Amino acid sequence: MHMFSRRNIAIHPGVHRSAQFLLLIILLILAGACAPTTPAPAPAPETYPDADPLPSWNDGAAKEAILKFVKETTDESGPNFVPPDDRIAVFDQDGTLWVEHPLYTQGVFALDRIRALAPSHPEWSQTEPFKSVIANDTQAISKFTETDWEAIIATTHAGMTTEQFTETVQHWLATAKHPRYNRPYTDLVYLPMLEVIAWLRENGFRTFMVTGGGQFFVRVYARKVYGFSPAEIVGSSLVLSYQYDGGKPVLMREPKLFFMDDGPGKAVGIELFIGQRPFAAFGNSNGDREMLEWTGAGYGKRIMMLVLHDDPEREYAYGPAEGLPNSGVGTFPQSLADEANAKGWFIISMKNDWKRIFLFEE
Amino acid sequence: MHMFSRRNIAIHPGVHRSAQFLLLIILLILAGACAPTTPAPAPAPETYPDADPLPSWNDGAAKEAILKFVKETTDESGPNFVPPDDRIAVFDQDGTLWVEHPLYTQGVFALDRIRALAPSHPEWSQTEPFKSVIANDTQAISKFTETDWEAIIATTHAGMTTEQFTETVQHWLATAKHPRYNRPYTDLVYLPMLEVIAWLRENGFRTFMVTGGGQFFVRVYARKVYGFSPAEIVGSSLVLSYQYDGGKPVLMREPKLFFMDDGPGKAVGIELFIGQRPFAAFGNSNGDREMLEWTGAGYGKRIMMLVLHDDPEREYAYGPAEGLPNSGVGTFPQSLADEANAKGWFIISMKNDWKRIFLFEE
User: Fold this and answer.
1) C-alpha distances in angstroms, B73 versus A207, B67, B76, B202?
2) Which one, of B195, B115, B164, B150, lies nearest residue B359 by Cα?
3) Cα–Cα distances in Å, from B212 out to A24, A225, A251, B181?
4) ipTM, 2 dp
5) pTM here?
6) Which of A271, A277, A292, A343 would best serve as a mutation to test chain B binding (most B beta carbons within 10 A)?
7) B301: Cα separation from own chain's centroid
């Protein structure tokens, strides 16, 4: 997996211990840089007591708050101690863990699938919304209604077994590239957030993704990219039906919404799938509002954070909070910024708080 | 928690190591016997290589199959090795992990709640199904239709927040007793199955309960009784809605079914909540058929087992498989027994395979 595995490294037994440490850290960093889709696990806290668990973060209120939260909730002698069984942290995906512009990755997948399926559907050249997708009419696509998207989702996400859907997503991910970065979408994860996830896990937190995106779409790559098992993905889903194909049972994806994990649905999803109120919640848009509110309504010390995309140089800039452009994808309204400030939720400035955004950056 | 905690035991440093072991084992057994609702964790395999992990099982095909399954799926050099990430085991609850006769525990809870709420509902004395419940007319209750039970569930399980429901269940469990055993319902778990769960966990399996019962009902005691976290309970559930009570967000339980985790729904529930096909599945009735079928349809070595209640002396006897009485609760039809025999699913005979059923037995 990694170019530099421990097996290939002979550390002379006579080398001083701290020099071995330094060498190992350098190798771990190098290994990380060479394996973009497999983040190197952060070192265990007991082994590297002085290492910074959040090296991709600039010093500031956000970084300080995360470190303080972990320290206080794991300090058995302090007033904010959280028993290990109760340590739950939740993360939105699009715009919080990876890039969501110019369009949600799953939306790109759906449009690409329409184009791939078009040859077997000649009637689509005369029917909207398929016609605009096939013509790649970006202006028309940007104006698609909910009904248009429902037709696209029903065509590209339903009428197949869960196994067939998984394979289709796998094949797409292996070849699709982001138009701006010209890299696989799974490369576009935020290194600072991977560090937060790793640090929370090392401190006994169980971490879950709580995404408006499709539960079965995200599961395809979530273990490899973020280390989330399928059971740790709470997402939107379609109705599944138990059927037989040549005597073998299959689960068919029906063109009918089962659960919408967005807005208030995220609090419901947390209760249904996790069953415990989180102590930490990370989001970036209006769809995460209730998830943060629900998290914050529990007793004791909790941390709620929102990523603000204010870095057009390295990533994107959109709000419309703080006077940023209003893009319609991953909307962060001024009302949410005001509520965050009033309630003590932290706003993470991508531009100021993140020293490094992607693993592939130099 | 335990009467004999390590703190109270001074083991002299001069005592021989194996004598310390023996003493510790005796103390663990005593501690287990004195703490009926908190099963003592089985010893870790690397510490006690020669200990029997399933001491409450008689020697026989079922016990042998479980031990062989665990051995082969964890043997890296063998053909049936299962990587740790894929090790999933699922367990039905009613009749598989605890007593379900004469009525499902959650059914008893619902009837008790009707009686507790009756004083504030004088109209119930004239309205079915409430009238029969209040009069404790067991013959009428045994003939309740699905619509009757829906009315009872809507009244006793909905119209309250998830927190209020949890508290209600907690209070009920603290006082309710099983009519035959005169013990709390949470004492009526099957020790042999606790041993299987512990043995699978110690061998890297993630264990989940997949129950037709209410997800939020079972979660109240599942951690204490079985060691399942709330996220490890897949069950039936009602629609939840996000509301505010005095400015504070609450999740209201609506009188509308969200998900029925029974029959084919168990395979759907596994896919939705766990997202990986199990390698081991344990059930006891017709409602577990598809769960076992779905488990068995995967590649490689899998184990599927059904508990047959054929022990009227120590527990209950019902089928109607194998000529046992047909009770209507936890039905195990002959067709399921025939299918099990044809497909190599194991049937566990409570009478012959289980040396000891309950922790409270002498």
Assistant:
1) 27, 10, 8, 13
2) B195
3) 51, 34, 19, 24
4) 0.86
5) 0.87
6) A271
7) 24
